[in-house]
Amino acid sequence: xxxxxxxxxxxxxxxxxxxxxxxxxxxxxxxxxxxxxxxxxxxxxxxxxxxxxxxxxxxxxxxxxxxxxxxxxxxxxxxxxxxxxxxxxxxxxxxxxxxxxxxxxxxxxxxxxxxxxxxxxxxxxxxxxxxxxxxxxxxxxxxxxxxxxxxxxxxxxxxxxxxxxxxxxxxxxxxxxxxxxxxxxxxxxxxxxxxxxxxxxxxxxxxxxxxxxxxxxxxxxxxxxxxxxxxxxxxxxxxxxxxxxx
Length: 246
Ligand code: MN
Prior knowledge:
Number of domains: 1
Strand content: 15-25%
Order of helices and strands: EHEHEHEEEHHHHEEEEE
CATH architecture: 4-Layer Sandwich
Strand order of the largest sheet: 4-3-2-1-10-11
Bound molecules: manganese (II) ion
Structural class: alpha/beta
CATH class: Alpha Beta
Number of strands: 11
Distance between the termini: 25 Å
Low-confidence stretches: none
Helix content: 25-40%
Oligomer: single chain
Shape: globular
């Protein structure tokens, strides 16, 4: 069976030393599925936390080398930062042979202009989170964080996560999903009708109308219980579950 030219999208693996099963599934994905694609897009939160390119561990090295191996074989690899791995920088990109994309970005997906976003920008009902995001993603803040020692960054990360976990407990579930007006506004601003995103861990395909035209938003799932990918070719996009065999 020869698969036609296709592109894969993944996000929200949240790779961490505590979950070697997820890393193993990702490494199998990179070895078996990814090489058959012509391009792979990683739409953020590949890692549970990224403390900076200067804090890479040998475990990270295994992941990055795997990605580099498919990039070396001619597969285009693109990475968009998520809210967990926003400190990923040029050294990471070099080590895995990927190109870093801005959030959002619009690509031409087999003739269909498609907007890619991690997705947290669309959760506008969560005003506390958006304020925190604006602060933490400010280049000045990032510069300050990177000037800290790795130990200090670990402590900061713990502090931020404890704060967000405590706040999230008080929030109704809907607040942490996307705001549909924000979805429409982002699509309108970029003049597209198709979107692929991650972040919310609510895998689904949503259909709606935008200026009288059919519009679609595909949400990738996380890799906590199984994997998730979007398979795209000239005939369209499909959201697929990836069974974990380990
Ligand atoms: Mn996220």
